[in-house]
Amino acid sequence: MFLCAMGIGAALSRKVFHDLLSTFLVIEIWLGVFGILTCPFLLYIGFVLDFTAIYFLAMLIFTGGIGIFVGLEIPLLSRYLETFTGSRRALANVLAADYIGSLVGSVAFPLVLLPLLGLIGSAAMALHGAAEQLLIMGGGDGLTAREIFKYPHVRSMTLVDLDSRILELAKDHPEFRKINADALRRSNIRIIAADAFAWIRHTDQRVDVVVADFPDPHAPALARLYSHEFYVAVKQRLKPGGVFVTQSSSPYFARKAFWAVRKTLESARFETASFHTDVPAFGDWGFHLAAEKEIDPNGLRVEIPTRYLTDELLVSMFVFGKDVSMVPTAVNTLNNMKLYSYYQMGDWEDY
Q: Reduced to 3 DSSP states, what percent helix, strand and coil does the chain have, rounded to the nearest 5?
């Protein structure tokens, strides 16, 4: 539907002969209007009014409208620039701007235009209250480390990530350094390029907070980082009163996989609390807190200034609706990788 509408827009552009730049700007304005209204309008009629028939009609109208406007863009801008640079260079310039702009926009949207939540670290730090020694597994880009270093009581940090190249880029590349605020160049961080599963089972280091920022368990090698055996090793590395937090995929798209992570944590004799939030470009995403003692989310407080997170919002993230509430699952072990199966069974076709 969208591609067809783009074709219609490209065909309609042949009907425009004068004021190319003005027409292009008007199209951009209407494209912005359609883009802003699409999500709230569709959500309202689909989930508040429950008008299913109207929902699909409105979706077609908005999709078609946006497609037509997008289809008009490049031909009009190309023809306008052609008057200055010639047709070949004009098309090349437009396509270059379009493709590079897409990259810049996709990176800027979650990293710059919207606040970085720092959520995975904030919840664990709020629960502990006075963590001084940290271990981060995964998170080789340095963004989680950047957020945690905002807490004044943090004295030292160890970051373990499998990808040595990512660690090098995050530490040395100017753009990465700007985004992660040189977190990987601080004197109080130790960076280790290693497999976290093997490393944590052999280290004797003990810390106050452990943060696991791994990819989803979409392969058996990754599912072992969410296994009973791994969580037992994590617990042994925590000091008394220590806190563990792990990203755990989406409770909406991979419901059984998400709750299997909690079940597995509890099998390692952790007390747990689960929370989730809508993350830009990801959707409904979930995490699990784990500690020796029972966790009361109502007592959590955000300790540092933030652009987004508030005490009330943090507490509300521990509430789950019926469609993402807990379901029965098995424990994920090295001998029985149930988590990998659950993840493959998720509703990823709707993602």
A: 55, 15, 30
Q: Is 271 helix (H, G, I), strand (E, B) or coil?
A: strand
Instruction: Report how far residue 113's alpha carbon sits from residue 108's, in angstroms, rounded to the nearest whole number.
Output: 6
The count of other CB atoms within 10 Å of the CB of residue 31 is 17
**Residue 251: helix, strand or coil by DSSP?**
coil
Reading the block at residue 76, the tokens are: 């009009």
pTM for the predicted model, two decimal places: 0.70
| CB neighbours of residue 229 within 10 Å | 16
DSSP, res 130: S
Tokens of 252: 């909406």
Answer yes or no: 213 catalytic. yes
- Cα separation, 176 vs 117, in Å, equals 18
Closest CA to 254 of 232, 282, 227, 233: 282
Report the C-alpha gap between 283 and 286 in whole angstroms: 10
Alpha helices in the chain (DSSP H): 2-12, 20-43, 52-85, 87-108, 119-128, 143-148, 164-172, 174-179, 196-200, 220-223, 228-236, 255-267, 311-316, 338-344
Q: Give the CA diameter of the chain.
A: 74
Active-site annotation holder among 141, 208, 213, 216:
213
Please state, in angstroms and rounded to a whole number, the distance separating the CA atoms of residues 72 and 309: 40
**For residues 90 and 82, is the Cβ–Cβ distance under 8 A?**
yes
Amino acid at 61: I
User: Encoding tokens for residue 223?
Assistant: 């599912």
**Structure confidence by residue, pLDDT tens digits, 211-234:** 999 999 999 999 999 999 999 999
Over residues 68-125, the pLDDT tens digits come to 888 887 777 777 666 665 555 545 554 555 545 555 555 544 444 444 756 788 999 9
